Task: structure prediction
Amino acid sequence: MTEHARLNPAVTITRQWWHSSTVYQIYPRSFADSNGDGIGDIPGIISKLDYLEKLGIDLIWLSPIYASPMDDNGYDISNYQDIAPEFGTLDDFWELLAKAKERGIGIVLDLVVNHTSDEHDWFLQARKGRDNPFRDFYIWRDPGPDGGPPNDLQSIFGGSAWELDPSSGQYYLHLFSRRQPDLNWENEGVRRAVYDMMNWWLDRGIAGFRMDVIDLIGKQPDKKITADGPHLHDYIQEMRRETLRHRDALTVGETWSVTPDSALLYSGRERHELSMVFQFEHVTQRWDEVFGKWRSKPFDLVALKAVFSKWQQALAEDGWNSLFWGNHDLPRAVSRYGDEGEFRVPSAKTLATVLHMMRGTPYVYQGEEIGMTNASFTSIEQYKDIETLNMHRLHLAAGLSPQDFIAGAHMNSRDNARTPMPWTDAPHGGFTTGTPWIEANGNVGSINAAAAVDDDQSVFHHYRTLITLRKTHDVIVYGRYQSYLDQHPEVFLYTRTLGGDRVTVLANLSKAPVVVALPGEIVTEGEALVWTHQPISSLEQTVSLRAWESFCILTRT
Ligand code: NOJ
Result:
């Protein structure tokens, strides 16, 4: 499936099928409920494949569907080779795999191997005592000198990362909840078991893996090293040798710690450990230095553009970017970066355009394609997310007012992305005939998939256009990225160039109309590719842009 193509005068890149693909992320719990129990499930996903085919996506990344006590909504796995009953059965999964394949859609599974559930058989065994053969599958330490935890390492969900196991008197490590004990990757048995499990799924035809917090697996907790441990890349290379080397799978690592240099270690052609990684600089850039995401900074387009341009340039000749605004841990794109009020539709379209026209593989998080907004919860009782609830407890104990916490949660709680997918204007957006596990958005009457599909000016059809353009224009996939007007506080302007083709992307990322003087080389005439307000096929020296207006022009010489 690969082919060497001379795509850029300076670079010979090996063409990969996933370079022109678009991935759609499904959070199964909130996508579509087929049996009225209020929880989304696999048969529900199967019933929406026509919708996804219409959107044009190539791959579905499924957040975990495995057996789990659901302490962290499935990111706590008790059996990697079985399905949680609320999501269905293995047979349902094989049916999804086959029916998606019939439509040309591959399934990418979530590989959560930094930790398991405390109900995984390995941990149940390990807990039995220090001599148990599975003991060393996890990370155990004696108490510290004061009789408390071995050190002050903190869990990402708040509190100590160590939990006492009273029967043995030792502590085990959990970088997430205490019900998510960390696996010990130094143990060869752990690595072998993970590779066997990966091969089991790959042999059955899945298209690849999204790898949960993969940058943490090389941790050295005694030195308080969590991300980027000294053996991290050894493990990933071994994983590749044992599972992926002879397969044509897509792999994407979740790496909050990645830098442009380490991105090349992961996805560069020399090692090709993974197809690509998720970098989060455009996300964390808006977090407070002290309070993190619970107090965010104002929108700063100049800084945001600088981050995107940095990553576009860093991986211009080697490696590969993943492009995303949102996922199940992040707020809704339109609420965070756009305008959820009067300009919701043009801002959702413009955000999509500036992202999808870059070089990399785009990821669309369920509901983003219809411009879903953040949850409108006003009380902590409406939130379900373990991180939000833990942080609420800890921040209030530390003196934050309940109102301030709710304001922060409204901006950045993970539940903003987890409200049910609205399919129609029926109660709960038609997500379920029962009571949803988490309240639906108050605006399902106007923001729902049926309305979006029916309206040819909708955000949905804009995404459809962008996804198709990537498949039909090599310049969008491989073109060289060049940004302009970097210091302009409202306008995002860049070009992509490949051979004689050039795409110019011009966008106003603000609700103020702007008149902008363009650099001489941008003046152009060509073909209107995609637009928010009206097709534009030529650019003069001075251009007026309406609130959140954007468009792309293809010039061929
Ligand atoms: C990252 C996942 O995206 C998040 O949802 C989860 O809670 C943690 N990893 C732990 O698995």
Remarks:
- Residues 72, 75, 112, 176, 212-213, 254, 328-329 surround 1-deoxynojirimycin (CB under 6 Å).
